[in-house]
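Worked Example 4.2. Consider the chain below.
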Amino acid sequence: MQFEPQQSSPATPPAKGPVVWLDMCQAELDAAYDQRSYAPNQPQVLKRYAGNSEIARQRLGQPQRFSYGATAVEGLDVYRTAQANAPICVFIHGGAWRAGQARDNAFMAELFVNAGAHLVVPDFLAVQDAGGSLMPMAEQVRRALAWVYLHAQRFGGDPQRIHLCGHSSGGHLAGVLLTTDWPGMFDLPADIIKGGLCCSGMYDLKPVRLSARSTYVNFTDETEDALSPQRHIRHLNAPLIVACGSLETPEFQRQARDFVSAVQQAGKPVQHLLAADYNHFEIVETLASPYGLLGRAMLEQMALVALEPHSA
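Applying the procedure from the previous section yields the following structure tokens:
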């Protein structure tokens, strides 16, 4: 007697919930705004940020610390170059809006100092210390940048050559700064930023608001609109670089592409950089090398060349 082989039935895919954003259900959207599942080495990379920042201070010396506001957190670190009237790069650190500090985000200081520029890294409050609102954080980084423009000569900086870069949630905040109405809000020139780099950021907050980040950020209609850089490109007055890694979540990559497309449609200069085989946390480390993707891009944007290492 012959027996027909049994046909195995295909596994039933798990049920998918209702679509929340694009083609994603809630679980998929939550994962799309949580880089940890895409970057299992996050803890090690964050330790490198802090460790390499300490090495930079050992080589360069401690930064000058200035206050840009009345509260304790409203301070900024300035890593000074030896050249007088030098250009300035302001770096806005990331941390999902709820972590990070200037001291642990200075690993790129040698790149700028050795190339003849000052590096400025501001501190600002975390979202949980502002009742879940992003608005005070945005207001602080705006005041920090305004302080740099108004007081650059206190540390030998040229206020007419301020460049900006930011990573992750700091990439979002850098986008906010680049699309700020400086004349209307601060009575400052519209072009106080001469060039910007937004790395691995979020530029329209609508899908972010729908994600699990809303469990610790108190999104409102006002916040979503006011702090979505893609909606305020009319105020962009500087050449822009938008970067992300090929190993970041597809949603972060889409955010970068859409922001670039919107800037292009507005007829403004923008460059899109995709770092092959870098995840969300690794990509910003390339800012510390003149031969890294971001380090090279910033030196070119600032018209600088890497010089011999600084001797403390």
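The longest strand covers residues 157-167. The CA atoms of residues 126 and 310 lie 33 Å apart. Compare this with Example 4.1 before moving on.
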